[in-house]
Amino acid sequence: MKKAILRTSNLERNEELARITLNPKTMQILNIIIYERKLRFKCRRCATFCCRLGGPKLTRKDALCIAQGGYAREEFLIPFRKEWNSSSTFLGDLRSNEEGSCIFLKFNSDEGNYECSIYDSRPSLCKLYPFDFRNESPQSISLGLIPCCRGLNNPDGELVDEGYIMDSLFDPISDFILRHVLSTRNDVGEERAL
Predict the structure, then answer these.
(1) pTM for the predicted model, two decimal places
(2) Which helix (H) or strand (E) element contains residue 76?
(3) N or C, which terminus of the chain has less Cβ within 10 Å?
(4) Does a structural domain hold residue 4?
(5) How many domains does the chain contain in total?
(6) pLDDT along the chain (194 residues), means of 10
(7) Pseudo-torsion of CA 165, 171, 172, 176, nearest 10°?
(8) How far apart are CA 64 and CA 129, in angstroms?
C-alpha cells in the first residue's frame, strides 16, 4: 500500500496566506492580497484533525443558530463560567460525545466518511477550518491556515483565491471581528448589541 504524503505547500502554522484590508466603519473589503496562489482546499470528510477532536468554542450567534435547528442549549452547550471568561466573544464550548468527537459528527457507513448533522448551521470556527486569522488592526486581517488538514492541496479542491475568501471565509471572520469590537465597546461601557 502506498503511503499518502500530506503536502500543505510551504506554509507553516501562523504564516500569512493572505492579507485582507477592510474599511473599519463599514466592514467592506477594500483589498485582498494573496501570498500563496496555488493552495487548494476541499474537505475530505475524514474528520481526523477537526471534528473527531471535539467541538469548537461557540459564539452567541452559533448557539442561536443551533438552537433554531431544534436543539436545547443544554444538549449542546457547555457554558463558560463568568469568572473564567471575561470576553463576550465566546459563550462556551460545544459538547463532545463519549469518544471525544463533536456531538454532531456522524459516520456515514454507506459513503465511508463523516458528516456534520448540523452542516447548514455549523459554528463559525467550523466554517473557517482549516483557516485561521489574526486581526492585525481595525482595518487589516492576516489569513493563515492549520496545516495538518488533509483537505489542503486536494487536487479536486477549490483554488483559495480572492473569490474563495469572499464566498467561504469572510462572513465568519467578520462575525468574529464585529463581536470583538462590540465586546470591547461593552467593556468600556458603551451600548451592547447582539
Answers:
(1) 0.78
(2) helix 73-76
(3) N
(4) no
(5) 2
(6) 38 76 86 93 91 91 94 94 61 93 94 92 93 87 90 93 93 76 48 37
(7) 120
(8) 20
Residue reference for cell 450567534: 61
In 3D, which of 12, 11, 20 has the Cα closest to residue 138?
A: 20
Question: Residue type at 10?
Answer: N
3-class DSSP state of 70:
coil
Is the C-alpha dihedral spanning 184, 187, 193, 194 positive or negative?
positive
Q: Closest by alpha carbon to 40, among 147, 175, 132, 159?
A: 159
> Residue 141 is part of which domain span?
14-42+129-183
So what's the pLDDT on residue 10?
A: 54
- Residue whose entry in the numeric block shows the C-alpha cell 435547528: 69
Last residue of one domain, picked from the residues 94, 120, 146: 120
**Residue of 131, 30, 117 whose CA lies nearest to 75:** 117
Decide if 82 is inside a domain. Answer: yes
pLDDT value at residue 138: 81
